[in-house]
């Protein structure tokens, strides 16, 4: 039993190794053929316009379709069955973030219905827009979406995917012209790659020399005697060998020239991207400097406003303190002193005494204004700092002779204030 299990493990391991080797060879073949097709397209574009009738383009489109469809997962339906899926389903989701993309335009095309036909239309539109490499790069950067659509071992999930975007970059130098209503958009038939343009066998110099020796041996053995006519074929073979060597050198030269042109185009593109990045960096730095300057100015303005508000607050506090002091002084000065109260009391006693003695006379006071003037004159005459005038001595006598006077509280009572008010408002006191 143990031997059977070991045999089973060896068989499964051998099977996995064979599968991995086949997948690696398949990926390598497709990438190599794609590189050859890009070079042939670049060569052909130097002599004629690339359109749908060009066999080089048809072969390239078939290769790119095979690469994008390599190990593509199927779509699981509601019933658990797996239906086939086209690479357009992956491109439609992964290339949404590309600026100014043509996804919506392809979706709205009337004459293109199937998913495979839409994918082929997208390849042609991307080539005419010179954005095919940009689309592929953006799709490969979305690794989460790529992992969701492809199985393990796919080209777009391996290291070959990075080479694919670089190879397609050289196609930006070609002006393509396609008709999106042609037969190439028919999605009913799968694309088939033609490998014959790339399967060229070249003999090595050692192999050519061995063939010449074999021909010389066969020629010498077939003739009975060596004649000058038998010397001809070796010289002809030598000329053919030199011609083949020249062809190989020329082919290597052309291949090197193509690689040089491709690298120059790549360098120009990188220089353009670097110049754009430098300009954007300068703009960002200038914007940062402007923002710093504006921030400093706003900070200075806020500091100035804070200082000004503090000064205004200090002035308001000083004014409030000064107003409080003035109000306190005014209230203190308006409050009557004890001496003034005594003087006012004497003046009112005098007036009340004159009223009580029935000395109100129409001739004495012609109006109430004269009465108020008399009261003020009496208050002035009662000032302790002045001497008594002779005009008042006859009316009420010396003020110093008054022994006592009533207080201010007694003056406010109704006993003394009721009769003068009635008397003053009576018709007999109105001036004539």
List keywords for this structure.
432 residues; two-stranded antiparallel sheet; 67% helix; 15 helices; 1% strand; mainly alpha
What does this structure look like?
- The protein has 432 residues and is mainly alpha-helical.
- Strands 1-2 form a two-stranded antiparallel ribbon.
- The C terminus is likely disordered.
- Helix 1 packs antiparallel against helix 2 and helix 6 packs antiparallel against helix 8.
- The chain has 15 helices and two strands.
- Helices cover 67% and strands 1% of the residues.
- A hairpin with a 5-residue loop joins strand 1 and strand 2.
List the helices and strands and how they pair.
Layout: H1 2-45, H2 55-68, E1 75-76, E2 82-83, H3 87-94, H4 103-107, H5 115-129, H6 132-141, H7 143-149, H8 160-168, H9 205-222, H10 232-334, H11 338-356, H12 368-381, H13 390-396, H14 408-411, H15 414-424
Helix pairs in contact: 1-2, 1-8, 3-5, 3-6, 6-8, 9-10
Q: Estimate the helix proportion, in percent.
A: 55-70%
List the strand order in the largest sheet: 1-2
Radius of gyration: 60 Å
- Overall pLDDT score: 75
Helices, by number, come to: 15
Structural class computed from helices and strand pairing: mainly alpha
How many β strands by DSSP? Answer: 2
Largest sheet, in brief, is: 2 strands, antiparallel
Q: State the end-to-end CA separation.
A: 155 Å
* Beta-strand percentage range: under 5%
pLDDT < 50 stretches? 221-237, 358-368, 381-432
Describe the oligomeric state of these chains in a short phrase: single chain
**How would the global form be characterised?**
elongated
H-E order: HHEEHHHHHHHHHHHHH
């Amino acid at each position: 039993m143990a031997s059977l299990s070991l045999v089973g493990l060896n068989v499964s391991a051998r099977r996995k190794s064979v599968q991995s080797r086949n997948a690696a060879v398949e990926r390598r073949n497709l990438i190599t053929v794609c590189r050859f097709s890009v070079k042939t397209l670049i060569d052909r574009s130097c002599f004629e316009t690339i359109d749908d009738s060009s066999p080089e383009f048809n072969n390239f489109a078939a290769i790119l379709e095979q690469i994008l469809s390599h190990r593509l997962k199927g779509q699981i339906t509601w019933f658990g069955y797996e239906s086939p899926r086209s690479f357009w389903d992956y491109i439609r989701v992964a290339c949404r973030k590309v600026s100014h993309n043509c996804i919506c335009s392809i979706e709205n095309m009337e004459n293109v219905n199937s998913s495979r036909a839409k994918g082929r239309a997208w390849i042609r539109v991307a080539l005419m827009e010179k954005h095919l490499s940009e689309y592929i790069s953006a799709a490969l950067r979305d690794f989460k979406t790529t992992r969701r659509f492809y199985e393990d071992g796919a080209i777009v999930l391996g290291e070959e995917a990075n080479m694919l975007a670089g190879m397609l970059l050289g196609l930006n130098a070609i002006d393509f012209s396609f008709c999106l209503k042609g037969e190439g958009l028919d999605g009913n038939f799968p694309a088939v790659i033609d490998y014959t343009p790339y399967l060229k066998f070249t003999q090595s110099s050692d192999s050519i020399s061995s063939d010449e020796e074999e021909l010389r041996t066969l020629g010498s053995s077939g003739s009975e005697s060596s004649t000058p006519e038998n010397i001809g074929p070796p010289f002809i073979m030598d000329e053919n060998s030199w011609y083949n060597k020249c062809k190989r050198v020329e082919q290597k030269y052309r291949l090197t020239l193509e690689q040089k042109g491709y690298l120059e185009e790549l360098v120009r593109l990188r220089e353009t991207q670097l110049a754009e990045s430098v300009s954007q960096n300068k703009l960002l730095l200038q914007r940062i400097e402007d923002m710093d300057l504006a921030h400093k100015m706003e900070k200075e303005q806020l500091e100035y406003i804070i200082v000004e508000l503090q000064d205004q607050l200090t002035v308001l506090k000083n004014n409030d303190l000064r107003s409080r002091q003035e109000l306190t002084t005014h209230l203190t000065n308006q409050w009557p002193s004890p001496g003034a109260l005594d003087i006012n009391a004497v003046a009112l006693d005098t007036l009340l005494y004159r009223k009580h003695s029935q000395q109100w006379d129409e001739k004495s006071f012609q109006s109430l204004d004269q009465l108020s003037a008399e009261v003020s004159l009496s208050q002035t005459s009662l000032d302790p700092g002045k001497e008594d005038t002779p005009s008042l001595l006859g009316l009420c006598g010396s003020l110093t002779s008054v022994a006592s006077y009533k207080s201010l509280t007694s003056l406010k009572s109704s006993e003394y204030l009721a009769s003068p008010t009635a008397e003053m408002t009576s018709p007999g006191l109105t001036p004539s």
